[in-house]
Design goal:
Elements: H1 25-30, H2 32-52, H3 58-68, H4 75-82, H5 89-103, H6 117-153, E1 158-163, E2 166-172, H7 173-195, H8 210-214, H9 219-230, H10 244-270, E3 278-279, H11 296-317, H12 329-357, E4 359-360, H13 362-371, H14 373-377, H15 387-395
Antiparallel strand pairs: 1-2, 3-4
Helix pairs in contact: 2-3, 2-6, 2-9, 3-5, 6-7, 6-12, 7-10, 7-15, 10-11, 10-12, 11-12
Length: about 425
């Protein structure tokens, strides 16, 4: 006997199990409504590009664009109908053609002309990625901007360096914060770089552009026009089974999550009760122990850092795609890519708030240093070496990555 219909359990996901991203801009930018909007944007842009090279009437492009701009498309209905063909583009094309037919009878034939479902969905996911990476980039820049004065302020704040969990030699908190900032800037660089290379997908049924040429369209000109309409890049070749763009996204997102996870890992250690060298500005509450103030932002960043690499591994595994459209490898990418974008977006927003509100306790750092193994060594423990000079050098980096003056660490909803 089949299982019960999903409707018997209530509505769809609202973020109960994903507090790292719930309420963040990235959650909205990667939601089903955003994916649907990106698919409609891709369909409309394709028709406009075809009109731009003289392959379809201008009135058809106007009708498709107007129909695609409406809000009358049912995302849930499309999702339920997607099972019949294995992707949501097939039912969307049916609905879009019907909408165009109402506006401009006869012009529905120009919807999706020459394209395959993968052309539209791949392009839509690149649009979703581009829009989400723009948000991530702003929050990474804001995080780096808050870490710069933190590192500068504490360039001479001595604390114990810890290796393999034990006190090692003296260092400064400024050097630690400068290291965080360097990683965040590295993540920012990777996000900006991959954002600038995201391509449209356009190859037709098997990546040969034959269907477009059958309609009298010159393939290279069409691809360039399509990319220009959407603000994405024109690829050298159709990449139906050449998944470099997705793999590049996977790498950048895994690095981003890991970089923010490093910040979180240090804050979690330094904010332990027995260490007490830093604290989150606003601690989280405990349901069982109301006296506790938990480092919740760091906990959520740490959770994202553990999830995104696993999601990236699925995206990398999907590169081994057979034929000209693989059975399953392409389909396996959609959810992990969306979730990796969402997690990184939520983590970047959380990191901007965390670093902007972080409390530092230099007296506790000195006390821990004096009472540990290093205190027993006295002067034999040595100084902090070139820590201050390294902080100064590190802070000279990244002027171009700093956010505009009106960007401040945003308050998480």
């Amino acid at each position: 006997m089949p299982s019960r219909d999903a409707s018997s359990y209530g509505g769809g996901d609202v973020g109960l199990l994903t507090p790292v991203s719930a309420g963040s801009p990235a959650e909205g930018a990667t939601g089903d409504a955003a994916v649907l909007r990106a698919m409609l944007d891709a369909e409309a842009a394709l028709t406009r590009a075809q009109a731009g090279i003289g392959a379809v009437p201008g009135r058809a492009a106007e009708a498709v664009t107007k129909a695609a701009g409406s809000v009358g498309f049912d995302a849930r209905g499309l999702a339920l109908r997607a099972g019949a063909g294995g992707n949501p583009v097939i039912p969307l094309v049916t609905d879009l053609r019907a909408a165009v037919a109402e506006l401009s009878p006869g012009d529905e034939e120009f919807v999706h002309r020459g394209a395959t479902s993968q052309d539209i969905l791949d392009t839509a996911l690149m649009l979703v990625a581009a829009r989400t990476l723009d948000l991530i980039g702003v929050d990474l820049a804001a995080t780096a901007a808050t870490l710069a004065p933190l590192a500068d302020r504490h360039r001479a704040t001595v604390m114990a360096a810890r290796t393999l969990t034990r006190h090692a030699v003296p260092t400064t908190f400024g050097l630690k914060a400068a290291g965080w900032r360097s990683l965040v800037l590295d993540a920012h660089d990777r996000v900006v770089r991959v954002r600038s290379t995201l391509p449209v997908q356009l190859g037709g049924a098997a990546g040969t552009l034959a269907a477009f040429e059958a309609y009298g369209m010159e393939g290279e000109a069409l691809v360039s026009a399509f990319a220009a309409e959407l603000g994405l890049c024109a690829p050298e070749l159709p990449w139906h089974v050449l998944r470099t763009p997705v793999a590049d996204l996977a790498g950048a997102l895994a690095f981003c999550a890991g970089a923010l996870g490093k910040v979180a890992a240090d804050v979690l250690v330094l904010s332990r009760t027995e260490v007490g060298e830093v604290a989150e500005g606003t601690g989280g509450i405990s349901s069982a122990m109301p006296h506790k103030r938990n480092p919740v932002r760091s906990v959520l960043l740490a959770s994202a850092a553990r999830q995104v690499p696993a999601l990236a591994s699925t995206l990398y595994a999907s590169m081994a795609a057979e034929d000209e459209r693989p059975p399953g490898a392409w389909h396996a990418e959609w959810s992990p890519l969306r979730e990796a974008l969402r997690l990184c977006g939520g983590a970047a927003r959380g990191a901007a708030v965390l670093c902007g509100e972080l409390s530092v306790f230099p007296a506790r750092m000195r006390s821990n240093l004096a009472q540990g193994e290093l205190g027993k060594l006295g002067e034999a423990a040595g100084g902090v070496g070139a820590a201050e000079a390294m902080v100064a050098r590190a802070l000279r980096r990244g002027a171009l990555a700093a956010p505009p003056e009106d960007v401040r660490p945003p308050a998480h909803p």
